[in-house]
Amino acid sequence: MKIFFRLCFVFVALSMLTIGLPSVAKAQIRVAPQLFLDPPYTGRYGLGTDADPDLIAKLDLDVMADGRGLPRGSGTVFGGEFVYREHCAQCHGDDLRGIEGVRGGPLFGGRGSLAGPAPLKTVESFWPFATTLIDYVRRAMPTENPGSLGPNDLYGVVAFILYRGGIIGADDVMNPSTMQAVEMPNRRGFSNGRGTVEAFNWR
Ligand code: HEC
Description:
Elements: H1 2-37, H2 53-59, E1 75-76, H3 77-87, H4 89-92, H5 131-140, H6 151-164, E2 173-174, H7 176-181
Antiparallel strand pairs: 1-2
Helix pairs in contact: 3-6, 5-6
The chain binds heme C.
The site of heme C has 22 residues, from α4 and α5.
């Protein structure tokens, strides 16, 4: 009789292991999704600070291809050359042709080369809009101190690059309206895969 009770005990214990445990696991699986169905947390986490208009203005830098967002200001080729020598030449070279072994690269030249055997991608050969140069230089250049150039310096240095690329004249002044009027050499060089279109469709 004793042996019978012992066997019963072993049988019950084994059944708990084989049936009991999976049903516990199943119960957990049933419970878990309810955590996600609960209404989301609506309180405050107490992180960060409110963004004031000054901070937003510093971050709200984007200039669109059609000139929306261009900062107020103006610059000349003459003035831009000084900005270039001080802030850009160490990486892009005194003559804007880049420096061997330095990752700045050339900023002009290569016009018409992109579809050929030795494509040279520069502002002159590649960029479809001059307006986005302001955007790019303002947010990314010089790489060790991006965002450091004021609007007049930005217009000046961009004027200097465009002048060296033979895109504007030595006496041209760059400001929001002249900038929008610049016709870049590769303006019509972009394709949407169905033939050449007038740059890409940015609107
Ligand atoms: C410390 C080095 C450094 C300095 C200083 C620097 N650049 Fe650059 N620049 C780079 C690098 C590196 C790239 C390539 C970035 C990339 O490919 O993502 C670049 C890319 C560019 C491009 C894009 C070129 C292209 O054909 O697409 C422009 C335009 C440019 N720089 C302008 C400037 C101007 C203007 C200044 C000065 C205000 C400047 N850079 C200063 C390193 C520098």
